[in-house]
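Figure S4 source data
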Amino acid sequence: EAVEAEAEAAAVAAAVSPPPRVYSEREVAAAMGRVAPRAILDALAAGFTSYSQGRVSVPPIQTLGQPPLGRFSGDSKGDGQACIKSAYEEGGEVFVAKVASGGGGNNSGLVLVFSQRTFAPLAVLLDGGLLTELRTAAAGALAASLFAPAEPHHIAVIGCGVQARYQLGMLAAVTPCRAVRLWSRRPEQARALAAELDGGPAGWAAEVAPSAEAACRGAGIVLTVTPARSAIVRTAWLRRPVVVLAIGADSAGKQELEAGALIEADLVVVDSRAQCVDKGELQHAVAAGFDPEEARELGECIAEGGWGRGSKPSRPELVVFDSTGVAIQDVKIAELCLAELSRQPAVPSKL
């Protein structure tokens, strides 16, 4: 009996999964600093394609701190929120649950990575929101790589917070344009970003525009990264050829563009048709009469190598990309991060 008991105990011990590895924000940042932007873009492109082909399972997003829910107790500006997203690629190795939170210029978060085979947690990435910033920026750069003019006159940046910096970092990998016009409802933010960019290693030539209109007029790429709940960018300001990267609207009621920008666009591209109808710029365009079936998913465009042929064979000159953030992006960026971390010498789990 003693021998049987020992054997049973050994079997139980063998079945117990090892504790997950816990990685600090510094470790995650160091790992991602070794990953080339092109590798991030390629991984996200594969993820969007898989999503649009129906090979990704994505539950509904939970959004806390924004209407119709109440504000967080420390949210004096009304821009605080936390998004909980999860997904897995069918036939893949992991599933991911991510919390990204922020407001008032502060961002945070973490990513939990589990095995699809053992269902046990593999890693806790205490990234402080870094992976979300990178994967969000990569989506904008992918859209720009497909639809931006070959030589944009300048890039208009509407909103000069943290994500604006990451977007420009990724855009530098897909466009030769280095002229930037910045505008923010908080002029000190625009001035601070201009000072960071101007003359830096990426070669940006940045100036602060006196108005959102002045920033947008003549731009080949218009980037909007704000928490606005009413339109900032007017359709009349957009001069073809131009691609608008609308990043900020990611929950019900948010809006950065006039609905007419989508209605008059040659092509509307969304990261997720289902999500954008509820949370993106598409929600307002649909309310104004736009048919959501006319929008194409980014994954569809990537799979076809551009805007597709269909009923619009010529290159579209006014393209709006509506980004709400799809959890397959979190899966792909987490996989990249773990792969890079695994190349370093193993250390015992912190748990």
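Figure S5 source data
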Amino acid sequence: LGMAPLTPPIKALRLRPCGLRLRLSRVTWAPCRTRTRPRVMISLSSMNTRFCRQYLVSSPLMLAPMGGCAGGKLAAAVSKAGALGLVGSGGESQKYLRQQWSISQAQGGCHGFGINVAQVNAEDLRTLVDTLKPQVVYLSFGDVREKGHANAVIDGGAQVIANAADVQTVVKHADAGVAVIVVQGADAGGHTDGRASAFAVLPEARDALDAAGHNDVLLAYAGGVADGRGVAAALTLGADAVVLGTRLAAAEESDYLATQKEALRGASDGANATTIGRFVDALNGIDEHSSGLPGRCLVNRSTALKDAWDSAPSPEA
């Protein structure tokens, strides 16, 4: 993989139960002796990437800060297990973020939180950083420099993580002082930019950062990674870390409902089992998500209704 030699294996990352065991080569079932449901065990040898050394974590993995899913319990569990745990607050209130942060602290703490640029101004963001004292803040979906968001985090003593869907934005984030840039594209779940696959953008982004003198800026990959094969591929293409979202959304510590987790575990053939659009947000009474982007979801009765609505003749016909 072109990486430093692997150090001795670390203690397995255990997030109960998503029903899968993640290894670099494959996914296998790991039945739990004391439960009727399987236990998730994400087991990686220490990759010793720059990301691991910078944040003192054992695995080059980061929890996607998914609003309404990655709450305090999941963030703390991920951090405790040796990866980078983040409380998600996209689409949620600052009160919600503070509550979930308190939950994470009560369970051992986590590394930071995520918030959408459009849902907070720089002044309030600085207050959150000063109060919560995170190590990192993940700023999603927006220009982190224009209205002072990046400076609010950096001046508060934390590092900035931000996502980007194209090389131009990657370099722009680096110029603004972002420490870790998450390349996220059409492969991703949740709200995402559908223009290109992040696997296509990632190597070009690494080359562009190096050419611009930003060799010290780290890259993370987000989108469609479900097992160790995806982790290995991302690292080979130039990533220093991988962001896991849907994979961990099914964990016991996730705030999703049991029915949602079961649906995630039962899904297969993602090209046909998922769809992307703005319809689900509209069903929830949201005219436009704070990301400004369409969202990916599982195909269900609601999305089928949308397809029927779109194909129906107009009343004027």
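Confidence is low (pLDDT under 50) at residues 1-43. The two ends are 59 Å apart (CA to CA).
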